[in-house]
Amino acid sequence: MRVSRLLCAACLPGLLASPRDSRAAEAAGPIRIGTATGIAGRAVRGALAVAEDPDGSPISLPVAVVTGTRPGPVVWVDAAAHGDEYGGPRALQELVKSLDPAAMSGTLVAVFLANPPAFRGLQRVNPSLDDLADMGDAFPGRPRFATERIAAVLTENVKRVAGYFIDLHTGGDRFRQHPFVFYTLTPAIPDARYDELARGFGVPTLWRDTNRIFPNDAVTTFAAAGIPAFLLEVGGGQPLDAADVRLQAGAVRNFLRRVGVLPNQAAPPPVAHVLVTGYRIVTNSRGGFFEASVHPGDRVRGGSVLGRIDDVYGDTVETLTAPAGTDIVLGVSTYPAAPTGGWLLELGTGLSESPPGQ
């Protein structure tokens, strides 16, 4: 892993005060997102119109603008870009309800459902046969299909107001993820600063992308524009795990403290970090029942047994193994059966570790 020693905690004030952050902190007037206009010391709810249903009724993103009593950065957090990822909205609800605007500096913009058509359809993507686009591949958006139009509205508003962007994700209703923070390095943001901000979530596993593996994702798009952007992935599967919801909400809260939106508290104990630089998807050649042999977070190496496929008679017809160069299990399907080509496992590559405090 090509990572230099990260900056010490004493360096943080200078590290975090970038020109972009200063502009965000000094934004004139209240933050306006759709029908929600920020008011100092209050949380204001509203909606951001993005499209229309066939009967002409509006499709809108539910928004809360939580404004502190002192100037500070603007942090944009959204959830449910994939409609079957229910943990993110629940974590964002918990976060917003826990905030005391009187104790805040700056503003939190919370978008609880970034993809209402997919959420209404209880599916990962907009189920309209004229769409079916993955929002993770739709940025910066364009005036074409509905998902791309929503991405365009989000892009316009995030670039207009945000100093930081956080995208909350889970494994959806049939996949479980090891918690990690994903971010894509860019010339627009110094590497060391980006690394330190990522550590601010307090999540031990960081996916430090150096290859722009998701070129049309929100995180990559906003990072290229100079906005430090992160994807926070936690849990998934059914039913929702309350511990996952608390972890995700707490990680965003940690970040808000790190950038000065929330007041600093006693420093938490330093944690060791695992960094990965890439990943591999493992699919099956034979259809049947999937039985995993590993769990999210398990360490693996090339040739490690990951699971098996049993046919309808109960006979094992395929054994899934880890490709060479893989190091850690990032996610495992929780669905019991799969046709050929099922998205069954995600593995991290290029793993390195740093001790607590480094």
Task: Determine the fraction of residues in helical runs and give it as a percent range.
Answer: 10-25%
Radius of gyration: 20 Å
Structural class: alpha+beta
- Number of E-state strands: 19
What's the number of helices?
8
Describe the main β-sheet briefly: 13 strands, mixed
Distance between the termini: 14 Å
Contiguous runs where pLDDT drops below 50 for at least 5 residues: 1-26
Mean pLDDT across all amino acids: 92
Q: Mind telling me which CATH architecture of the largest domain this is? A: 3-Layer(aba) Sandwich
Report the sheet-strand fraction.
25-35%
CATH superfamily grouping of the largest domain: Zn peptidases
- What CATH calls the topology of the largest domain is Aminopeptidase
| Topology as a string of helices (H) and strands (E) | HHEEEEEHEHHEEHEHEHEEEEEEEEE
| Name of the CATH first level of the largest domain | Alpha Beta
Shape: globular
How many domains would you count in the coordinates? 2
